[in-house]
Amino acid sequence: MLQKPRGTRDFLPDEMARRRAAEAKMREAVARWGYGEVCTPTFEDVELFTIRSGENIKKEMYTFEDKGNRQMTLRPEVTASVARMYVNEGRSLPKPLRWFYVADCFRYERPQKGRYRQFWQFGVELIGADSASADAEVVMVADDLLRSVGLEYDLKVGFLAPMKHLLSGIEPGLQRQVMGLLDKRDFEGLAGCLQTCGQDELEDALTGLVSCRAPEEAFEICGEIPEKTRIEEIFSILDGSETEYTLNFGIVRGLDYYTGMVFEGFAPNLGAESQVVGGGNYRLAKLFGGDDAASCGFAIGFDRVMVSLGETPMPRPPLVAVLSQPGLLAVAFRTARALRAAGVTAELNLLDRGIGAQLSHAAKTADFACIIGQRESEAGTVTLKDLHTGEQREMSLSEAVAGVKAVGDR
Question: Is 125 within any annotated ligand binding site?
Answer without folding.
Answer: yes
